[in-house]
Each structure stands twice: as structure tokens, then as C-alpha cells.
Write a structure and sequence with these properties.
- The protein is of the alpha/beta class.
- It has helices at about 20-30, 50, 80-85, 100-110, 125-130, 150-155, 155-170, 185-195, 205, 210-225, and strands spanning about 10, 40, 60, 90, 115-120, 135-140, 175-180, 200.
- An 8-stranded parallel β-sheet has the order 2-1-8-7-6-5-4-3.
- Bound molecules: SN-glycerol-3-phosphate.
- SN-glycerol-3-phosphate (G3P) binds near residues 141 and 202.
- SN-glycerol-3-phosphate binds near residues 147, 180, 200, 201 and 204.
Length: about 230
Amino acid sequence: MPSSPFPRVIVNYKAYETGIAEAGLKLAFIMEKYGKEFFGIAPQMQDLTFIARQTSIPVFSQHADPLDEDKATGWVLPRSLAKAGVFGVILNHSERPLPTGRIEETIALARKYGLSSLVCANSPRRAREIAKLSPDAIAVEPPELIGTKTSVSEAEPKVIEKAVKNVHDVNPDILVFVGAGIHSSGDVSKALELGAYGVLLASGVMKARDVEGEIKALVKGVKDGLSK
Ligand code: G3P
């Protein structure tokens, strides 16, 4: 299991302009005010060291490769990520899919260097297969809802229940995140009520007109979800 607890909300910066370089650090500082138990972030690769060294909230890499040698030009090594101060790696995002064998190798290598692994799955069924690889966490995201205003919590609550069941049938220690279209406090609280540990999101924060207002809404969602 991970050395320190996972945050409840992980904001994937993807390649949004609002998360690159100084803008990404500024965004991290806003989330940091609310605590590392609430927020984690996944900035662009080139900003990882710069941001991880200046913020106390957990920082994730958006991807990693299962390589551990010096002659590895252009690859993202878990060993380098650990040196950069990264908390964990996101693997198999639907925008960066990976074959199962590579996911398994990368989870193991990440663990060797003390990094947590959060593996994405596009369905509860795929989540069950991925659970057999023993990552620390799995994020289930229906691809058709990614980047939309319709959240998985409102449109596909059964996907959340099924994802939690499928993963925990295999291994109850794996944390289940859900994502796609999450933007309101109600989206977050509902996901938690349905059994998810947390949420993975991007556009709700990265495209928000009132970023701090959005962040406050997400914190409220976590608090509401945990109090029910
Ligand atoms: O990694 C988060 C993700 O794919 C969901 O994106 O924009 O629907 O929150 P979004």
C-alpha cells in the first residue's frame, strides 16, 4: 500500500494551458490551502520537478514507462520520478492507453521506487482485470463522458457501484476513484456515497471561470460525501 494516504480529489492538468509552468504552480498553491488529504495533481511531465519541490500536495505523473536503465532517451522512468519528488503515477489513461503487460511491469517498478500507482480503466469490467495487477488505486472513467458537463455520478451511477464491487471482489484494499465530467459538489458527494474513495477530474477545474470557487465546491463535496 502507498506510504502516505491518497488525496480524495486528483486534478489531472492534462495539457490545459491553465496548468502549464507557473500557471500550474499557482493552481497547486490554491489547492494546497485546502490540504493534502483533499487534493493531488497531475501536471505535465516537464513541470513535475518544478511543482513537486514547491508544494506539499501529492503530485502524480500522467504516465510512466517500465524502464530502469540509463540508456533510455525519451522514456519516463519511475526512478527519475521518485527523485523529482513525485508521489505516484497515473497509468493507462484513456488518452494514453497501455497494454496490460506494460501496466503490470510499471506498477512493480513504481513500487520499487516508493511510488503509488493509479491505473485507469474505461469500464467496471476492465477495472476487475486491472485489480488483478494489484495497483494501489484504480480510476474508472467512461470515455464518452470525459471533458463533458455530464458527470459519471449523474449519468452512470451504476458504473460507480459496479466499479467498486468489481475491484473490491478482487482486492478490497485497492482504492476506487471515478471520473469523467465531475464538476459539482454533488458529483463528488454522490461518487463517495456510492462507494468510491475519490474522484479524478480535469476540465471542471482547468476550464473553470472561478477556479477557487470550483475548488471549494469539490472540498464541500468530499465533506458531504464522507458525512453521509
Ligand atoms: O483524468 C481525468 C479525466 O479524464 C476526466 O476529465 O475533463 O471529464 O474531468 P474531465
